[in-house]
Amino acid sequence: MSRYRDFHRESIAHPEDFWRREAARIHWETPFDAVLDRSNPPFARWFCGGRTNLCFNAVDRHLASRAAQNALVYVSTETGIERRYTYADLHAEVNRMAAVMQSLGVTRGARVLIYLPMIPEAVFAMLACARLGAIHSVVFGGFAAPSLAARIDDAKPVLIVSADAGARGGKVIDYAPLVDEAMARAQHAPPHVLLIDRQLAPTRLKANYIVDYEPLREQHYEAQVPCVWLESNEPSYILYTSGTTGKPKGVLRDVGGYAVALAASMEYIFEGRAGDTMFTASDIGWVVGHSYIIYAPLLAGMTTVMYEGTPIRPDGGIWWRLVEQFGINLMFTAPTAIRVLKKQDPALLRSADLSSLRTLFLAGEPLDEPTAAWISQALGKPVVDNYWQTETGWPMLAIQRGVEALPQKLGSPGVPVYGYDLKLRSEHTGELCAAGEKGVITLGYPLPPGCMQTVWGDDARFVKTYWESVPGHEVYSTFDWGVQDAEGYVTILGRTDDVINVAGHRLGTREIEEAISSHAAVAEVAVVGVNDAVKGQAALAFVVLRDAASAADPQAAQTLEAAIAATVDRQLGAIARPARVHFVALLPKTRSGKLLRRAIAALAEGRDPGDLPTIEDPSALQQVRDAVAGAS
Ligand code: AMP
């Protein structure tokens, strides 16, 4: 373990020396004056004064040696479309998109909201923003109109890029009504929506703010748009994520630190090399998509595979056939996908030639031991669990095989990654935990390059939310529980806050509660996450009705449950829909009126809720038990 230990120790003891060396991985148009500025904690600025550009590093820089190599391979099992873009093609497409954006008023520092399904134009749009020094904010295509409108109002974009439709599991999702409603709701709606018309949707967006991409692309076909050199700490993107409150946080990331962190992670964690092919099965709307579908593989001169579809259509062998067809070397997905694949015929896995595949990476949610054991055995390749979050942008815990291939311990994502001063601390005192003692996973100052710089437009919220929640210590809280063994391996034990994780998607229970409360029949609601065999967790809602009689008979209850679920779909999107809505007369609360969510979750999972000395009315516990028992 000594190589890993020395490497990690060096990165924490001498961050300037460590990251100065790593910074050589990217092109700096102007060298930086200082590696790290710690004058204003908890804010940290990396590579101060250095000027660079993410798009240049991801695309232009490779033209000299890899113009003819595939940069992007696109496969959609929804539409049957397959496309390959060399680095030269990608360069041309990004220039076209950048020129079109410029013609629509996109400039350095301006925000562009990208609400797109998994199509190559999403990559072009993100890289075009990077080229222009504009700030992209990608909103997951599954979010509903009010969520989209809230993000428009927070980011105040000058342009939205959208498409006529997405597709999933053979169903077309018409974007027109969503975009129309969001534009109508938003206070800060931009003048234009640039439309990528896939010719999929039954209805077309017709509003006067729609601008069709295709004719503009033709018009700017030969465009050459210079990269705008940005100071390393200028923003590259905003990515919204759920937290404890109903209002999503805009995680803001820089340019230089992000590029360096991703490039280094490619060697030390992913063991990816220029010319390799990487398939990250995620969505561009999530941080894994930003970092490991787009930026990291391209920064490293690799070929990235972008996939629209599910892991089981046309059948459960599709991903393994892609590995064979494209000679995929590295694969990255979430444990949920593996749990889904585990139910498929194992012959599908064995029938493909997987000899090109070196490693499978899994992140986004806890990897349970049976799933880890099954997939490692079935593949016969290393499976690397890695733990991180939208805020960090790249892994915090992993076996860093490019540093030292330490043994795996099932159930643990491994040991702290270089650059992260990761420590477990007591929830009550903030003191360090002993080995084997449960605590909150925290990070010391400064966060390494690539991590969030602040909450967009709200420095105070960044400080208060992340740096002031551990008593007595100015450390960053991940809001995850964990336990570390004597050798340094950490196991994740769930969230400390009201965030749940459904199929690798992070959802704020408060957001779901707010959506449910907007239904006229609802007086009170509590949403909790419970164990789910496939999705890791599922959301359950417990609702107190204004008029209990409205769900008096099973038929009425069923209708109301469907209506409440539909309200969540409309407000937030189907990904946030609770698995069940249970009706109760009373919710477990403290005498001061705080919902006892942990107790509700325990009861819903059939566990003992423990001692609850502050509970207002203990009969509320039986209500939850009965509701869950009645439903099963
Ligand atoms: P997100 O910001 O949406 O990527 O969600 C991040 C959260 O997902 C973390 O704070 C953890 O709660 C959870 N998470 C991510 N990766 C892992 C992992 N490898 N093991 C356990 N939990 C994880």
Helix/strand layout:
Layout (H helix, E strand, L loop, with lengths): L1 H12 L1 H9 L10 E4 L7 E4 L2 E2 L1 H5 L4 H4 L3 E7 L5 E5 H17 L7 E5 L4 H13 L2 E4 L6 H11 L3 E5 L1 E4 L2 E4 L1 H10 L6 E5 L13 E3 H7 L10 E2 L5 E5 L7 E5 L2 H13 L8 E4 L6 H13 L3 E6 L9 H9 L3 E4 L1 H8 L3 H5 L8 E5 L5 H11 L3 E4 L10 E2 L16 E2 L5 E4 L13 E5 L10 E2 L3 H9 L8 E9 L5 E6 L3 E4 L2 E4 H9 L4 E11 L3 E10 L8 H18 L8 E4 L13 H8 L14 H13 L1
Parallel strand pairs: 4-17, 6-7, 6-8, 7-14, 8-11, 11-12, 16-17, 16-18, 18-19, 19-20, 31-32
Antiparallel strand pairs: 1-2, 3-13, 4-5, 9-10, 14-15, 15-25, 21-22, 23-24, 24-26, 26-27, 28-29, 30-31
Helix pairs in contact: 1-2, 5-6, 5-9, 7-8, 10-11, 13-15, 19-20
This protein binds adenosine monophosphate.
The site of adenosine monophosphate has 20 residues, from strand 20, strand 26 and strand 27.
| Bound heterogens, unique | adenosine monophosphate
Spatial sequence of strands, sheet with the most strands: 12-11-8-6-7-14-15-25
- Helical stretch count? 20
What's the count of strands? Answer: 32
Average pLDDT, to the nearest integer?
95
CATH topology of the domain at 508-631: GMP Synthetase, Chain A, domain 3
Strand content: 15-25%
The end-to-end distance, rounded to whole angstroms, is: 48 Å
Estimated structural class: alpha/beta
CATH class of the domain at 508-631: Alpha Beta
Question: Any idea what the radius of gyration is?
Answer: 24 Å
**What is the second-level CATH architecture of the domain at 508-631?**
2-Layer Sandwich
State the helicity in percent bands: 25-40%
